[in-house]
Amino acid sequence: MADNTCKACRDDYKVTEAQMQRIMQTSAFAPERRVDAQQYQERLQLCSTCPKLSDGVTCTACGCIIPVVAWLKERACPLPGGGRWGKLTGQAPGGSVATAADEQLSPS
Ligand code: SF4
Hints:
By secondary structure, this protein is of the alpha+beta class. The protein has helices at residues 17-24, 37-48, 66-69, 100-105; strands at 53-54, 58-59, 88-91, 97-99. The protein has one domain (30-105). It is 28% helix and 10% strand. Strands 1-2 form a two-stranded antiparallel ribbon. Strands 3-4 form a two-stranded antiparallel ribbon. The N and C termini lie far apart (58 Å).
């Protein structure tokens, strides 16, 4: 009988560095779609203390490979209430980077 379970959900499945690097070479990760290195590290830091992070790699809330998707401006933490980190939508006054969560909190 065929095994129809998701192989990425099996306990023994590990995403390799080579697989992550291959994904990063695709057009989905073009430079204009990426956050800068500091923002990337901030996202990884926030995820590193999250109970949803499995093996330091996989977010069990969304199934994403965090060291990969944390590069994307358009990605956000899936936790309710805006999550631990948000989409990066542009420059905020004063030079810091605005997140989608910032914009929701801003008076209009
Ligand atoms: S994306 Fe959000 S829910 Fe997933 S591991 Fe990171 S902080 Fe936790």
